[in-house]
Fold this protein.
Amino acid sequence: MLIRDFASHPSVMRKEDPTWKFALGASPVTEGSILRLVDEAGNEGFGYASATPHMGAIAATLEAELSYFKPHVLGKDGDHIEAIGAALDRAMRGAPQAKAAVDCALHELLARRLNVPLCQLFGGQMRDQVPILRILAIKSPEDMATQAKKLVDEGYRYLKIKVHGEVDLDVQRVAAIRKRVGDDVHLTIDANQSYTVKNAIIAINRMADYNIDLVEQPVPADDFEGLAHVTRTVPVKVEADEAAGSLAEIYQLVTKRAVDAVSLKIPKLGGLRNTIAAARLCEQAGVSYRMGAAVGSRLLSAHALHLACALPSVDYACELGEFARLLDDPFDGIEIENGVLHLNKGPGSGARWKGPDHA
């Protein structure tokens, strides 16, 4: 079925808390682009391109990249997802966020045309729900503890604590949150590359006293040796995020056992196909994986949810609920219930576009 329309729409979503920040930056809005594909029969498929500067994409480059990719998609058979993906790779190196939008839109288009849930294209359903891990932005220990208690009262049982590389203050943040939420809530840490190797080891060993499950990207992304040293040294599971920016990087991480786990992100890896390939690499190496932070529209979370429900070895809460802290979402159709996202059984991902005026 040939694709007859290819249109992108900028998306700017305000944050409920405009002071929300993490170690790599702060912005009062979350930006991206919505890609809409339409085939000859009028079926629609949508993809979300994330404007994530620390992953190499801003809103202006996304629009330029999508425009550049348009002739490689328009007029092509939408069922030929692999062929279109290969054409995009030949046309331009990199651009994973824009490629992810095309890849997701093609999968969504095919699932809707076949009238099946998106997860059917990935081998079918393994589970029908995923617990959600919510992120706590960097603030004072007391303010972070207050926000943590608010999320727990809303039904969340998994929280991720953003830290900033200041060992004593970061440990205080963890201690305050653990004291406020009690012992039954799962806590993880995300340093976003902000520690030196030595300080990471010191901080994680001190944080371990507060029963944390996992530490994400404690040291710079390009320091594989340092990351491996932290992994071998600390008693807490260590997960790669920024260091796992491509299939080649994930291959290196898992074959060298530099980490215990990998955070898989569809925009970072260039789409659903590459994310599935990354999961298979992790499975063969005996390394844990889960779906990492999907920050943007419900559309992105819906795609990641279907993949999380199809992959056999997703072993922990996934970060697919950050749309709950954003305003002006151009999509609806999925909502978190008591800290859990339930799989939509209708055709496609279940995300519904509100129209171009909302994009």
